[in-house]
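A protein record pairs a chain with a discrete description of its three-dimensional fold. The following entry can be read in just this way:
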Amino acid sequence: MLLSLALIAACTPDGAPADRTPVYATAGAPIAGMAEGILDLPVGAPLGGYSSRCSYLGGDSKIDNRKTPYTVGFVPSVGVHTPAQAQVLWLQAGNQDLVLARIDAIYSFDGFVDVLEDRLTQDTGMDMHGKVVVATSHSHHAVANYSEQEGFYLGGDRYNREIFERITGDLEALAMEAYDSKVPAAIGIGMEKDWDPEDRVYHDRRGENDNLAFFPDIPAGSYKDPNLWVLRVDTAEGQPIGFFFDFGMHGTSLGGDNPMQSTDSIGGVMQAVQERFDSPLVIGHLQGGGGDASPSGTDDGFARLETIGEYGADAIVDLWSQTPTSTDPITMESVSRGISMARDQLTVERPYGTLEYTPYDETEGYTPDNVVYDDQGHIISPIDEFNAKYGGVFCGYDEPLLSSGTIGSTVFPYNGCMDIDIISHLVFGIFGMDVDNLELPLAHMMRANTSATYLKGVSMRTADGQDSVDNALLGFFPGETTSMYTEQFRRRALDEGGFQHTLVVGYAQDHEGYLLIPEDWLLGGYEPNITFWGPLGPEHIMEGVLQMSEERFGGDLLEPEDPTLYPTTAYEDVPLDQLAPDQTPAAGTLATSVPEGLYTPLVDHGMAVQLGPDAVLPRVQGVAQLVWQGGDPMVDSPLVVLERQDGGDWVEIKTRSGRPVGSDRTDVLLTWLPDPLYPVDAEQTHTWWAGWQAVSWGEERAGLPEGTYRLHVHGNRYPGGSTSWPWAREPYELTSEPFEVVAAQVDVQVGGGTVSAAIPAPAWGWRLVDLDGSSVGDNPLSAASLSWELADGSTVDDAAKAAVSGGRSVFAAVPPADAVAAVVTDAYGNTGRTEL
């Protein structure tokens, strides 16, 4: 028996509303459009994912005492490594549409979906309710104060209306761009399993469940969600438009002390995949069972993100290339429901019975029996240990966060659970909210908003390598889907609903914290501490998705949108900040001195700040810096691009895929400094710094073409005249002095019957140079060749071939008797010489 869900009160028994003619999904050839863009989010906004960034909890990543209009309890961001991206697919089949959007953010918010459904309905004249999905990357370094869910303010600061409006506005524009670009399409789904067997891309991080052999055919031990799938979209003529790929991995490579906005590990994979193509396809990542999976990779810092991408890109593109597409008609149905999370309604089915909680007991000093399992190892039901009227958090730890305020149980992992009542008062205090207006239960905790889409007759490549035409169920889950949880959903969907091909998207539509099966939750550890409703809440959500999928996708009758899907909120009623940006008349001028306190992420690695670039920059070993007076970040998100002189013209350098090299990618780093640092209503100057390391992309990282280059800044200043966001803007531009990019200096060493050579990256390096090397050390050469300079002035080539060892290209070679020097050169003309 699945959990009971209340349908719309005005519905007749067959599910159709009494005042509505039944509507059925019709088949049709796919029509699709895709769009991508950069979210316009300000430097100075708080980053999500690490509660340690909250000032009350230590202020991790704090650089100085700057204040911004965007932070309340968190420290502000100070720059950008890679800005948040967004990709949108608008898919139409027959009489149905689906908008699938993904953004770089810590988690989704049902307010995004609510507003976009309304706005896209107005924009198109079509009813888009129940047809919009917003999924997120789970980067722990993306702007986060867009959600009105008070329970997650410790994950990203208090809700800010402007940040919410910036994201929804950009998503609306991209959705309409995708809508306007729709063409007859060919689509397909590809699936792969065990695609990262060596854990080079991602790995299991949850050791607490290593001894849990929950599935009979999956042995106990380290386990990560092994599934990769793609949704491929081509034109009807076979020209690629773009695709989404899905696997589970956290965005936590950089750590909580990073103060820079970044797409983190997911961004590293997306950029590497994008650069496998010769045109700018729209390519986005969706999360699978990433709740308990950490990024792997090699190297350090920002370069590590690039290695993760390089390790994963070929497998992803291979699956894309093997995925068949078809223009044949398909049927597409979507359904969304709000699943009740009232404590005493939470149930989960097991073969040995229904798991449920005992009714809440208000007796002062209530004590449960503290017995969790029976003599067969089954969970005892009803469960009396989770006696939390309004929910609990921080479960799973050996000791509670506070000595008082627990839910009364003394048995692990319930003994660490803190009552939401206590924590809510703490959160309201930290984030400057009126505790007297605290209403429990918290509204957003009482409903989990979910969606599912069913594609009938879609072309696919299954995980066993077979091509077929079949049906696929996409489940969109409001939280951090973990590995066992996603596997459980796939198995239950097959066993109970007959859904053979089930695809999971986590961190979508809403957020309820970590999603674990009860048996996994009860093992404790980090993940159970960010849940609200104990061991039963997450799989209760799963059963709701299963029930609505079974009920709705058994036929073609379409379910009307549930008018109670979204909780009553005030996210659009919160007033916009009236504090205007600073007018910066000097914006667009080069700085004449380096201001005190100007932060760069490389200053601790020995890179001195310079106002402008040196006249000559060697590949890999050179950096072009630029310091200028810019606009207030409330209006200025500078775009810095690299240009190369071509005759009398300056031409933007683009990557293989056709994307400009600059601050929209990992090529150029940006930081910002206000003066004075505070208060925020003071008249401030705004200094910006940009840095570009002379490294190319793809296989030719050490082969950037020699020539004359410059940095070109496109920014905005505030001219005055506005009373609230969106603030008026006027553009400014400036360029750096030209500089010459020349060959890198190769380090050559001779001795012991070998000649070794490497391109040494500087201690401040942040770009990946070679997977067999180091961003801050030695890197082997591409197609290295060895020659000897002889005493008579002549040169002789050595036939020895180099092998890679310890980050160096090593030749087994002995110098001729009359040799005076060894010279090593790579395929790009990078050269080194050492005298014998």
